Task: structure prediction
Amino acid sequence: MKIALGQINTTIGDFSGNAGKIIAFAQRARAAGAGLILFPELAICGYPPRDLVERPSFVAHNQEALERIARETRGIAVICGVVTPAEAETGKRVMNSAALLRDGQVALVQSKMLLPTYDVFDEMRNFAPAQKQELFSFCGKRMALTICEDAWNDKHFWPRRLYGLDPVEELLRAGGNFLLNISASPFWVGKREFRQKMLGTVAHNDKVPVVMVNLVGGNDSLVFDGSSFVLAPDGRVVAQGKSFEEDLIFFDPDALAGDLHEQVEGEDASAYSALVLGTRDYCRKCGFTQVTMGLSGGIDSALTACIAVDALGAENVLGVSMPSQYSSQGSIEDSRALAANLGIRFEVLPIGELFEAYGNTLRPAFKDMPEDVTEENIQSRIRGTLLMAHSNKFGGIVLSTGNKSELAVGYCTLYGDMAGGLAVISDVPKTMVYRLADYVNSQAPRIPQATIQKPPSAELRPDQKDTDTLPAYEILDRVLEDYIEDLKTPEQIAQERGFDPALVRRVVCMVDRAEYKRQQAAPGLKITEKAFGLGRRFPIAAKYE
Result:
């Protein structure tokens, strides 16, 4: 008897669509001879549902969909994630659960015990933890069923565990000999390898097969890569699903052999695939079919345009060049060449006269004060206004094009280049932007070499270069990684990296001062361990050095 993994892409709150997808995958698996199929965490309602679980109607729809799935999947056992009411009289009203469906009935409900509250997770806000677990039998195996975080507390892997309880250890001590884990584990660069290593430690030390089925798709800022797998007791991968797309995987629980589907390999290829998937799903699930974006001739907008084309198709992407008197002719030509290479629509909207009109209006108020960053920001805000006007008129969502390095230090303009509905590369450091551009061109020459080779510049004043304001990006990105992801002090960074302490302190001050900007930015796609957004919650009005 085969077991199947249904690696599906769900939409939060789309009970009809999610249930229909679960039923269709289960019927395919049954036709191929599988006796059991597993689906991801909260597959019925989509993950993460956040405060939607506080609505009684939302919880009721979970139950209705679960009953429909049970009725329409007879002949194959189904395990899928679902929100269920909590039984306790006190505490949260709902639980994050896994339901086992057999012969049209709900045979078992197992709820999640470990509720993460770190990084992008806040499950203790919404769910009550389970107080008990039980095993179930299938094909002569004593199945230990867990939900995502329940399998992430192994004492042999973590130097410091977050929880005093290990659900896996308890289930195996009770006689379990086959570990199942249904997950909604978000992607970041290196996460797939980390998952396999962590669960491989469980398999190896406890001498049990480990099955992990993971969600795939983008939901708001989170991207789920799928990459489901089955591990033998020695930690070998004996079955695996594709990365960044839906998949149906089969394996034999006795022979421990199954489908080995090809995955996206390499950090840059994986990061790019995640950005494409996240952009596609954000637009599609929010009801947008077209996007509008500014093309400056720089590498950030060029990379964003490539991602948009691969996500939505060239026919659904509009690139707008908005030159001022400070824009070089080369930048305009590079934008036009990029648009031609990608096959997207291209418009030129000069902003020189608008900028002059702003100056005329403000001149009495500014008297004879010299031009400074104020006038630079006006140019950026004119461009943001034009893009949003185009969005309002034609319905395409605006993609902002700023990278993580700029956002970190506030080298961006509120209501200007930060305007938009999705900040596609806001978790991509500038040095990675260049790597991803090289990756794009290794597949097909799309980004003009002039765009890649010229020094970065906002082109908001004569002969401007980013290095007029910022350290070289090779240095800046190292400081940012140490400070943002590893929480090191400026003194530690300067000493360990051999950087000028004054430079490091200046960068750190820029990061801290820019918090108010970041909290007004468009949602961005998370691809690193620590992105700006839900996973990094700092106060704005603070005086901590």
Notes: The mean pLDDT is 96. The longest helix spans residues 373-394.
